[in-house]
Amino acid sequence: VADEPTGNLDETTSKEIVKLFQEIAHEQKKCIILVTHEQEVAKACDVVYELKERAFSKVEG
């Protein structure tokens, strides 16, 4: 579980962290749950859920 793991990082470091999470998830077959407000980070995820009005909904696309 990661809460805003790239929140205070520069763009280059953020991309490295996202890449590391992807490698862990795919190569080690691990589920990584992270919270982000950054669309670029969300786009790199395999599955995205959005919290709106106290309810989660899956983001398609």
TrEMBL record:
UniProt keyword terms in alphabetical order: ATP-binding, Nucleotide-binding
InterPro entries named in the record: P-loop_NTPase
Gene Ontology MF, one: ATP binding
Coiled coil stretches, renumbered: none
Protein origin, superkingdom: Bacteria
PANTHER family from the UniProt entry: CELL DIVISION ATP-BINDING PROTEIN FTSE, LIPOPROTEIN-RELEASING SYSTEM ATP-BINDING PROTEIN LOLD
Protein name: ABC transporter ATP-binding protein
Organism: Listeria monocytogenes
